[in-house]
Amino acid sequence: MTYAIECRQLTKTWPGNPPVEAVRGIDLAVDQGTCFGVLGPNGAGKTTTIEICEGLLEATSGEALILGRSWKTHPDEIREQIGLSLQETRLSEKLTVLETLTLFRSFYRDGLDPMEAIAKVSLQEKTNARIKSLSGGQKQRVAVATALVGNPKLLFLDEPTTGLDPQSRRDLWRIITEFREAGGTVLLTTHYMDEAERLCDRVAIFDRGKILAIDSPQKLIADLGAEHMVVFTVSGSMDPADDFGAGLPGVIGVRRESEHRCLSVREPHIAIPSLLALINQQGLQLTSLTTRQATLEDVFVHYAGHGLNDESEGARR
Amino acid sequence: MSQSWTMQPLFQLFLARFREFIRTPEAVFWSYVFPLVMMIALGLAFRSEPVEAVAVTIQNGDLSEATQKLLADNKAVKVTSGSEDDCRRMLRAGQTELIVVVTGTAEKPSYEFRYDPTRPGSVHARNTVNDALERASGRKDLLTTSDKAIQEPGSRYIDFLVPGLIGMGLMGGGVWGVGYAIVDMRIRQVLKRFLGTPMKKHHFVAAMMASRMVFMIPEIIVILLLARVMFGVTNNGSYFSVGVIVLLGAIEFASIGLMIASRARTLEAVAGLMNLTMVPMWIGSGIFFSASRFPDLVQPLIKILPLTPVIASLRHVMQEGATMVQILPNIGIMLAWAVGTFVVALKVFRWD
Ligand SMILES: Nc1ncnc2c1ncn2[C@@H]1O[C@H](COP(=O)(O)OP(=O)(O)OP(=O)(O)O)[C@@H](O)[C@H]1O
Ligand SMILES: [Mg+2]
């Protein structure tokens, strides 16, 4: 079966002084019927990559094949089969939800009835409301409905849930899951690790225009070699070093997030007693201790080597 | 699913644009009400009435009162008096056209006229007063003359103004209506969003142009109707010719709006470009006064400004009853602008 999306050595350099190498050699393949997540800090090149795949930007080199077709030779056929929502679009405020979807529907040869698209995003009550009067989450749902109304095989969503409340995010997750269960393919970008873990069959972690890791969330977590996190705080006469706890038996990594210290460990039942012993020995008090499963966020921090919200300045060279 | 004509993208794009327009009261006001207000205000301000009595001021002096009496019966002048300073001030402020200074004796007065010879009103006042004083002191007219009032249809200022305002409305509506809407859509990333659909680019452009054609029809009809009802402005040519000029003018300025908006990414940029485009035409294309008043040197330039042929041919038809053949050269200039800017616009158009 052909891939839904296949990128080969994709690069994109924005002209300027100095030029910005936004994408620096991306290879990825997305199977049909799966959901693929693109993660990465601000400026990592996620939007640039997805927009090349959507045919909105031209790659500097390399190529993106969509459903086995090339943008160069079959742009119209590809457009009939994809649906998308941009990271930031403000649809015409003066039109109603139904008018907007009817407009988008008219662009496609085949597609859903506009009312059906409205139902898919549960906005029936707002059918005749102007876009202006909708909340942010409702507007986002209209944007997704415009992506669905052409009955696409492949859906591109650039940060579909950014800025939404937890309930609205879950509403969108449901829409995405339903689309995928009906056989569709989804490529989405997100800054929420829980979202990626929940929705995506595979994720790629982008940083500075490159892919650092690409696999299923479970596999990426397992590959850390430490599936548990021990999070604790201590107090005492002096503040111990940032790498406090490194080298204890079973401890694979150490990091500090303000007063919280996190140990990635393979076997908590070995690591915790030796940690307690070390605390005692240094005359410190343990003020809290919890353990949790490692998450995609831990993978992300591991690969990126810096916090989630750092600009990836390295992209500018 | 079969596509009825209502699901045609061209129609839907047009409909969306149409709805946006009528749901924006400001846009409706500026395109429909504003030209009307302008016409009514100017039409009333420049009513063609018999020339009013001209204001003349006599500088205070021994003989000023006697002179004032001499002129009192003359309907063509309205006489006041004042000190030397008053007189100068009034002349400067345009409150009087002529200062008369009387010297000499009661038996042999001598009159001095002070006025600005570049002011037509002042020259007229000088001649009128001179005449009146001569007659009052006994001059006899040697020729028999008589006055008969005639008025050519289409020769009043309002007849001249209405085609100018129509042209101005076509220009403003096309450049703003198309240009602003497109840049706004680019800023909102709607153009980019459309690019991600199978929408045909020429459908989008055609819908923008077509909506402009439709918005302009009531605008022009209302101006023509009101001009006729309020001021008796008639069309001495054929309405078909007027229709052709108006349609072509609308297409021309919609194309120009399209070109101006084809790359701009901010409202400031597009507003600047629009002003840069329109200001020379507001001044040069003869909306309010005849473009032939400009020096000969710039005439060739003025003739090929996009607005000039629209207004000139409208006047030619409406005031003088010109035929299509007579306005053909102007039609040619309009066509050239419409096609030229349209082609350039499509070449350089930016969707993101
Ligand atoms: N139109 C543009 N012109 C010049 N540089 C650009 C342009 N668009 C993006 N860039 C640069 O390309 C790099 C990648 O941007 P991109 O939008 O792909 O990041 P992103 O991963 O989507 O970030 P975010 O999470 O903030 O959306 C950034 O350094 C950005 O400054
Ligand atoms: Mg982005």
Task: Provide a descriptive summary of the structure in words.
The complex is a heterodimer of chains A (317) and B (352). Chain A has 317 residues and is an alpha/beta fold. Helices cover 31% and strands 29% of the residues of chain A. Chain A is built from ten helices and 14 strands. In chain A, the strands form three sheets. In chain A, strands 6-7-8-3-9-10 form a six-stranded mixed sheet, with helices on both faces. In chain A, helix 3 packs across helix 4 (114-120). Chain A is elongated and about 75 Å long. The two termini of chain A are 39 Å apart. By secondary structure, chain B is α/β, with parallel strands linked by helices. Chain B has two domains: 5-46 and 156-348, no CATH class; 55-149, abc type-2 transporter like fold (3-Layer(aba) Sandwich), CATH 3.40.1710. Chain B has 13 helices and four strands. A four-stranded mixed sheet of chain B has the order 2-1-3-4. In chain B, helix 2 runs antiparallel to helix 6 and helix 9 packs antiparallel against helix 12. Chain B is elongated and about 95 Å long. The mean pLDDT of chain B is 88. At the A-B interface, helix 2 and helix 3 of A face helix 1 and helix 7 of B. The structure holds adenosine-5'-triphosphate and magnesium ion. Adenosine-5'-triphosphate is lined by residues 14, 16, 20, 22, 40, 42-48, 87, 315 of chain A.
